[in-house]
Specification:
- The strands form three sheets. This protein has a seven-stranded mixed sheet, sandwiched between helices. The chain has a three-stranded antiparallel sheet with strand order 9-12-11. Strands 1-10 form a two-stranded parallel ribbon.
- It is globular and about 60 Å long.
- α6 packs parallel to α7 and α12 runs parallel beside α14.
- The chain is an alpha/beta fold and 354 residues long.
- β11 and β12 form a beta hairpin.
- The structure holds pyridoxal-5'-phosphate.
- Pyridoxal-5'-phosphate (PLP) binds next to α3.
- Belongs to the threonine aldolase family.
- Its cofactor is pyridoxal 5'-phosphate.
- It comes from Ornithinimicrobium pratense.
Length: 354
């Protein structure tokens, strides 16, 4: 491949709206959504609620706000959420649950971000009385971002749902990439929706919309969510222009997520065959590839800089691991270039680099 090829695999948030999406945005019917008068937003909310089998939905500016409003529907000040130690709500939302809503958190240690139902159910405290913090909600992420695009098995989600319902604890599903889980497994969205009280989904990741997320739940919850969203500064006006991008993405850019998965898997197979200690291709289930570059003598920081020098951009997740994410704006030639560069760098042992 030409030396000028750049594969930007830092994140699937980097996608830019396609010409068809831009046209849909230009021609969107709009109104003031704080007044509840934007018809395109109403259509999107109805569509996403319907997909997940929930009563209602609310359009949100970001996935973080969708998650944080979702958590605040379940838990009040002095209560806790329980989730895994790699969860986006714990690691990538800047302490929002504590800062905005007075919510504390505990976590189980998760291999690749996988839900551990027995541990989750064993550490929740449904009613802590006057001595212990009460658990209001368990949060599950599907697919799991920092876990490496991991899909949560439906059977585990069901078991969590039954176990928490029996003791009156809620479930919030951080489904920023639930689209990818659905496309990879064929599990209907409504089956995932049935395993949670509230679900957040992102339109601005692999689906390719420039902005936007959606929170779903009961009609009563979404009425409260509307208040919380406005209080956090997320009441938006003629936002149908963005909802139109989301509707376009659902219609035209959902199925193609399978292409991202296939490309990520092909690169994982090439790298994992040569360097099995760096990645087990079996663990690459969707559009995220995590390499343990420390197993090849690199720090993640050094590896990311070296790869960027050859036109392959990634993200250092911690000292040992580098993350690469496939999306709408990455094609086969870029993917092939990424394979070449990753194999080349992993092949240069510590000694070769001096
Ligand atoms: C991206 C992401 C979010 C939301 O992120 P925003 O940048 O706030 O839209 C939430 N959860 C997960 C797992 C994510 O990957």
């Amino acid at each position: 491949m030409a030396a000028s090829t750049v594969a930007d695999l830092r994140s699937d948030t980097l996608t830019r709206p396609t010409p068809g999406m831009r046209e849909a945005m230009v021609s969107a019917e709009v109104g003031d959504d704080v007044y509840g008068e934007d018809p395109t937003v109403a259509l999107l909310e109805e569509q996403v609620a319907g997909l997940l089998g929930h009563e209602a939905a609310l359009f949100m500016p970001t996935g973080s706000m969708a998650n944080q409003v979702g958590l605040a529907l379940h838990a009040g000040p002095g209560q806790e959420i329980v989730t895994d130690h790699l969860a986006h709500v714990l690691r990538a939302e800047l302490g929002a649950a504590a800062a905005h809503s007075g919510i504390s958190a505990r976590s189980w240690v998760a291999d690749r971000g996988l839900l551990d139902v027995d541990t989750a159910l064993s550490i929740i405290v449904p009613d802590g009385g006057p001595y212990q913090v009460s658990t209001a909600c368990v949060v599950v992420e599907n697919t799991h971002n920092f876990g490496g695009g991991t899909i949560q098995p439906l059977a585990d989600l069901k078991a969590l749902r039954e176990g928490t319902r029996a003791v009156g604890v809620g479930v919030h599903l951080d489904g920023a990439r639930l689209w990818n889980a659905h496309v990879a497994t064929g599990v209907p969205f409504a089956d995932y929706g049935a395993c949670a009280d509230t679900v957040s989904v992102c339109l601005s990741k692999g689906l390719g919309a420039p902005v936007g997320s959606v929170l779903t739940g009961s009609t009563e919850q979404m009425a409260r969510a509307r208040v919380l969203r406005k209080r956090m500064g997320g009441g938006m006006r003629q936002v149908g222009i963005l909802a139109a991008a989301g509707r376009y993405a659902l219609e035209h850019q959902l199925d193609r997520l399978a292409d991202d998965h296939a490309r990520a898997r092909r690169v994982a197979q090439a790298v994992g065959t040569a360097y099995p200690q760096v990645v087990d291709p079996q663990t690459v289930q969707t559009n995220i590839l995590v390499l343990d570059v420390s197993a090849a003598g690199w720090t993640a920081g050094e590896f990311i800089v070296a790869a960027a020098g050859q036109g392959v951009l990634g993200y250092p997740m911690d000292a040992r691991r580098a993350r690469f994410v496939w999306h709408l704006d990455v094609d086969d030639p870029m993917s092939a270039h990424a394979t070449e560069v990753l194999l080349d760098l992993l092949g240069r042992g510590v000694d070769d680099r001096g």
